[in-house]
Input
Amino acid sequence: MTLLDRLAAVVGPQHVLTDEALTRGYRTDWTGRWVGRSMAVVRPASTAEVAEVVRACAAAGVSLVPQGGNTGLVGASVPADGEVVLSLRRLNSIDSVDPVGRTLGAQAGVTVADAQRAAAAGGLMLGIDLAARESATLGGVVATNAGGLRVVRHGTTRAQMLGVEAVLADGSVLRRWTGLAKDNVGYDLVGLLTGSEGTLAVITKVLMRLVPPAVDVHVALVGIASLGAAVDVLGDVVRAGSMVEAAEFFHADGLALVRETLGLRPPFPVDHPTYLLLELSRTTQDDVADLLERQGRRVADATIDAGPASRLWAYREAHTEAVSAAAASGGTPAVKVDVSVPPARHDSFESELRTVLTARFPTAQVVTYGHLAEGNSHVNLLGLPEDAAEDATDVVLRLVVQYGGSISAEHGIGRAKQRWLSLARSPADIAAMQAIKRALDPQGLLSPGVLLPPANPE
Ligand code: MLT
Ligand code: ZN
Output
């Protein structure tokens, strides 16, 4: 029996895709920058089927790439050279919402938006939100330890994790599922699999904490002179005791792209160099207005809406789509580099970055936006010569390191940044990660070339 026959016997022939046209969407990442070859796309519907698929691939010595919504931006969810794509999208049921224990248990292929809706129906909220919510899956956000819009309030995905079920590289099923706030038995395997980018196991189910919903929410869009001024305003808002649900930034060039793509009206009669979007809870319109008033000349302009579903969010959330549309019209995918630096140095980092990049790549347009509280810039490079992606990434990441930052804030390392791992982690650290990889996946079957260099099979 060939591997494809065996896979078809496990999941049904209609869920083993080999046709180039049918597999294209699974082989191409969201940005269009990463396109690979795949032997087949396999779509199991249960943990037992995932385990069978992994066992079959292991027996045949064929590598696998787990994939959720395929909204990742570092090439981690697509194959490179013939790997089987293991799509988790059919594992899409929500097992439980426990309003007393405040937990949600769900299969890996449930989208973030569906999990949010289930949590809301139980009177609670998922502590994770991101613009790709309708497509991104829980398994994907766990695999990447995704950040998103609510980190300032609830922490990253890792902070939401109470349990996980995952299929290991030998097909065995690991389950940590007590849901207890206090459970100190052994290594933190849930924390380890969170952010492992598909390299250690295939996540099949997740148990997440839920949080009380934000109440009396108001959203303010603030026109401001600089990123530094935005950081100062946020500092004052936090010191004033306000409950910050989100703090995002973008600049005039990004806003122009968003307005063009979505056909939106300008938020203010005049443009400002930088914009701060604040979502605050347990507050009133007047309180937010007072708070911003007290900032004096730091705040050039502001508009406040009752939230949370404010139209003001579109100006920030549509940046990814707008950059992608601009890249498509230019004919080359955008180079996207997600980084963070200490917030106090954020403004000088971005200024120096623009100077250095435009001196080295005069045709490049540098569009940045991101999550202010974490000093997290999404650096998007448009109009780069096609062969300059690696050099430009190198420039960005080296500057990040000079500023004491992280080369991956929230998107992961994936294939995009694998060759720069040693900029961010010591030899001992990388050796420890490789030892873990070898212990859990000795054949190097899971997502080879993602995060770590491909291992030599034992
Ligand atoms: C965002 O914050 O909008 C996302 O991380 C996606 C992006 O970097 O474009
Ligand atoms: Zn982001």
Summary: The chain has 16 helices and 19 strands.
